[in-house]
Amino acid sequence: MISPFLVLAISTCVTTSLVPEKEKDPKYWRDQAQQTLKNALKLQNLNTNVAKNVILFLGDGMGVSTVTAARILKGQLHHSPGEETRLEMDKFPYVALSKTYNTNAQVPDSAGTATAYLCGVKANEGTVGVSAATQRSHCNTTQGNEVTSVLRWAKDAGKSVGIVTTTRVNHATPSAAYAHSADRDWYSDNEMPPEALNQGCKDIAYQLMHNIKDIEVIMGGGRKYMFPKNRTDVEYEIDEKARGTRLDGLNLIDIWKSFKPRHKHSHYIWNRTELLALDPSTVDYLLGLFEPGDMQYELNRNNVTDPSLSEMVEMAIKILSKNPKGFFLLVEGGRIDHGHHEGKAKQALHEAVEMDQAIGRAGAMTSVEDTITVVTADHSHVFTFGGYTPRGNSIFGLAPMLSDTDKKPFTAILYGNGPGYKVVDGERENVSMVDYAHNNYQAQSAVPLRHETHGGEDVAVFAKGPMAHLLHGVHEQNYIPHVMAYAACIGANRDHCASVSSSGSSSPGSLLLLLALLPLGILF
């Protein structure tokens, strides 16, 4: 039976949809379009500077539908209808689409995609930092098939480098920046099969500490993978799942410290209080591991023990920007993906809004004149919202109608598959009987699965700064790091790069023009 109050709420929602008064005047829309046109015309003056700094923001699972829903949520959190709101990434002048398939998968995973947008090479699902010649879980197919990342290219060029994530620091996305593994799940040696260990493969946490020993900033979760088996966690003393996992008995935190030069200041921290107490001017190396596994969802975050993504990004940039040669920073909003997998759209979208805030924080601390910033996703999800909802409808609210088939209400947000599939007395669950605005509400899905799946459609790429115009149209995902490297004059493709002038600025575009004019004698 449908509650009469629900029917009233739905009908009221339609009739009282908020239309801002200014939007009723055609002049508002024409003026807005003309200003957008003026801004677009300015883009004809291309920014061909050399990028001193490179920042890559990766929203794990942040498909286009997630971006749109996060935009609406951001606006509604500021008491606006939401649809007209601009995310920080919306303000980037260049937008492209990225084809996300793995070499062996139509719908990809986060490991093969990370290898593409960090190493410039497409790979098989489940593998990180290796080419498609490596088969998942087959250690003996790894050697000789390793591929390096844009983080390594930046480090080799003398730049400072950093990794910030809301997942484990040895999770799929960050691991492709430094590791070469036939299996993304080899977090520590505890998760590896004996065969792989006997063949000499190393776990991802071990590789984090040994492959590139001078990564200046590492922040995220994953504490338990750094300590010997059953070592009690510093924060969750009675939680057995938080205990150390390593079978080799190594304390990777001690190893990390031992690799740092004595005259440098290195800091290992595990909580937000310690992070905010740091003076970045006196920090050369920072390792912050704030949870045994992944960090908490933003909605669940403990403000004492766990920093926000924005806070980690701010500290990272302050430390990395001390290098006169610049820096590369990888930032992952990794739990967008986890929220979707669990069917918890509210958690996923709040993660996306927090990542957008971090994008704004980074933008305020850098300049488009010398910093290329790219925002993208590794893949999408089977997440959607629709149902002819009126303007200003809560993004987590109901559609303004009942199903014309089962006569029950439904939320605007739905999943193609996942754990939200529920049948009560042989029929679809009546969402008016549950708290669909709860942080952990699992939106209804068409197909029952314990974990919702990725989506296979293209994802957006937003870019600003030097050479950002090279990200345009529809690209293979592995094109992205090649653009970042070209812009920063790092990696293998540096023939276009001019010598850095005494002022510290240079333009590869200007050099190309110079080379074109020389044969004509125009300069003499």
Structure, explained:
The structure is a single chain. Helices cover 28% and strands 17% of the residues. It is an alpha/beta fold and 524 residues long. The chain has two domains: 47-382 and 455-488, Alkaline Phosphatase, subunit A; 398-448, no CATH class. It has a ten-stranded mixed sheet with strand order 5-6-4-3-7-1-8-18-2-19, with helices on both faces. Strands 10-13-16 form a three-stranded mixed sheet. A hairpin with a 2-residue loop joins β14 (423-424) and β15 (427-428). The N and C termini lie far apart (87 Å).
Descriptors:
524 residues; alpha/beta; Alkaline Phosphatase, subunit A; 3-stranded mixed β-sheet; 17% strand; phosphoprotein; zinc
What secondary-structure arrangement, pairings included, does this model have?
Blueprint: H1 4-15, H2 26-42, E1 53-59, H3 64-77, E2 94-99, H4 110-119, H5 150-156, E3 160-168, H6 172-175, H7 194-198, H8 204-210, E4 217-221, H9 252-258, E5 266-269, H10 272-277, E6 285-289, H11 309-320, E7 327-333, H12 335-341, H13 345-365, E8 371-377, E9 380-381, E10 383-385, E11 398-402, E12 409-411, E13 413-418, E14 423-424, E15 427-428, E16 445-448, E17 454-455, E18 459-464, E19 473-476, H14 480-488, H15 508-517
